[in-house]
Amino acid sequence: MEWDLQKVKDLIKEKIEENLNLDYKASDSLQQNDKKANEISKDVSAFANSDGGVIIYGIREDNQNKHLPESIDPINRSEISKEWLEQIIQSRIRPRIENIIIHPIPLEEETNNLIYVVEIPQSNTAHQASDRKYYKRYHYCPTKRFQLKR
């Protein structure tokens, strides 16, 4: 699927709610610390262990209406690179998830700021997050390996 800034703005304008295949994350979800990196591994592995889907990093959720996008929350490209995000995803999930696509979407008005759209395919194998637990996309609660249908 092709992603661009207009498509992301349309999701916000139309108030497209998070669902089994779509999740919004504010820019602080990508802080460079172990806690946030572990959360990334849980989120991404949960999508792969379910139906696959898209995580958009750099979208603030509405405080009153959780799961609805409110606005763009820019990520500074010089602080959080695409390569850093790829490395976190690939190093903290076992086995590695093949064919993940990370789309950096530059913001028109600010040259160094962007958002990341991460496309995660449904996988044919079960994936563990960095805490050695299996997650699936239902409030990404831990689950047993045998509960994952493959």
UniProtKB/TrEMBL annotation:
Stretches assigned to the Schlafen AlbA-2 domain: 18-138
Keywords annotated in UniProt: DNA-binding
Gene3D superfamilies: Schlafen, AAA domain
InterPro entries recorded: Schlafen_AlbA_2_dom, Schlafen_AlbA_2_dom_sf
GO molecular function: DNA binding
Protein name per UniProt: Putative DNA-binding domain-containing protein
